[in-house]
């Protein structure tokens, strides 16, 4: 018996496996009709986490009288989107390489799955439903727990032999004398300007104890920007370093891919009034395209672009239950 036979709302399920939160949405005709979230707990076994995610999805489906037609997962890692496999062994969800997402979706709901890198999914979401509309040459940057990137050229999402093309903007070397990143590279954009690296940068500064930041139990970019605006010297120095790091990383990507438009998303974009003018100034001062720079915009859907992108990939792919098992 089909347990959904009395339900009349057909939806796609979107899941964004973030570094801090797992976001879940029910999507119908390009609109998110219901949302929820779980703590990421990305250090633990993913198979066990998927069971909790499935229970939450079932709860949302029941509350909205909905039947699932497909499930799209935006994942923080290098993804083989043709075989729905995680390729990278990284600090988040360490057992993810062995997870068969297609089998999970079919055994739980008898529906097809789509799997893509979270930054690539966000780019697709902004391209179709947000501030990427009208441009087929796009660069998307996400600034938050880490630094992600994705690139579209002539309407085609870059992939590459190892599925890394355009995807490692956060792992370009920006400081040859920098620390070894958790990816193994030296002086990455992430090691110089991301949430996971911020607290160490601040606490290891010589004048940390004299800074108002020392009174914060949790040092994040919201606190950093607030203390900088209030005149704290260390906060201003670290803020300037991060702004310069992000700007130079974006300039490197502009030089590599020559986009029409750069869309910037992620939690840090709550301070877009500071970031966008600074990055634009750096591009017009230091890039090769200073006389014809790309348009620079904030993401329209910083919290939901990944889920919307996975919805589009499900619809576009017309995926069936013959998905790889």
UniProtKB/TrEMBL annotation:
SUPFAM superfamilies: Actin-like ATPase domain
Signal peptide boundaries: none
Record-linked Gene3D superfamilies: 3.30.420.40
Top-level division of the source organism's lineage: Bacteria
InterPro entries associated with the record: ATPase_NBD, ROK
Family, as annotated: Belongs to the ROK (NagC/XylR) family.
Record protein name field: ROK family protein
Organism field: Chryseosolibacter indicus
């Amino acid at each position: 018996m089909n347990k959904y036979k009395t339900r009349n709302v057909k939806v796609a399920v979107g899941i964004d496996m973030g570094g801090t939160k797992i976001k879940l949405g029910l999507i119908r005709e390009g609109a998110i009709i219901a949302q929820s979230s779980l703590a990421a707990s990305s250090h633990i076994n993913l198979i066990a986490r998927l069971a909790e995610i499935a229970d939450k999805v079932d709860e949302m489906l029941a509350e909205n009288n909905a039947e699932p037609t497909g499930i799209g997962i935006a994942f923080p890692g290098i993804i083989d989107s043709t075989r729905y496999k995680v390729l990278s062994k990284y600090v988040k969800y360490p057992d993810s390489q062995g997870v068969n997402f297609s089998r999970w979706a079919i055994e739980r709901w008898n529906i097809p799955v789509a799997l893509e890198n979270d930054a690539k999914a966000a780019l697709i979401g902004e391209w179709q439903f947000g501030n990427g509309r009208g441009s087929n040459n796009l660069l998307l940057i996400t600034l938050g727990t880490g630094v992600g990137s994705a690139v579209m050229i002539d309407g085609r999402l870059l992939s590459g032999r190892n599925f890394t093309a355009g995807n490692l903007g956060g792992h370009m070397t920006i400081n040859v004398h920098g620390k070894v990143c958790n990816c193994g590279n030296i002086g990455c954009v992430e090691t110089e300007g991301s949430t996971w690296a911020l607290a160490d940068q601040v606490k290891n500064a010589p004048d940390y104890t004299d800074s108002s930041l020392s009174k914060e139990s949790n040092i994040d970019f919201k606190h950093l920007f607030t203390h900088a605006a209030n005149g704290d010297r260390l906060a201003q120095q670290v803020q300037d370093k991060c702004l310069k790091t992000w700007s130079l990383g974006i300039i490197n990507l502009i030089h590599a891919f020559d986009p029409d438009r750069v869309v910037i998303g992620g939690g840090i974009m709550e301070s877009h009034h500071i970031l966008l003018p600074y990055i634009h100034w750096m591009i017009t001062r230091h890039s090769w395209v200073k006389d014809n720079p790309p348009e620079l915009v904030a993401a329209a859907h910083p919290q939901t672009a990944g889920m919307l992108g996975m919805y589009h990939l499900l619809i576009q792919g017309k995926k069936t239950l013959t998905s790889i098992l």
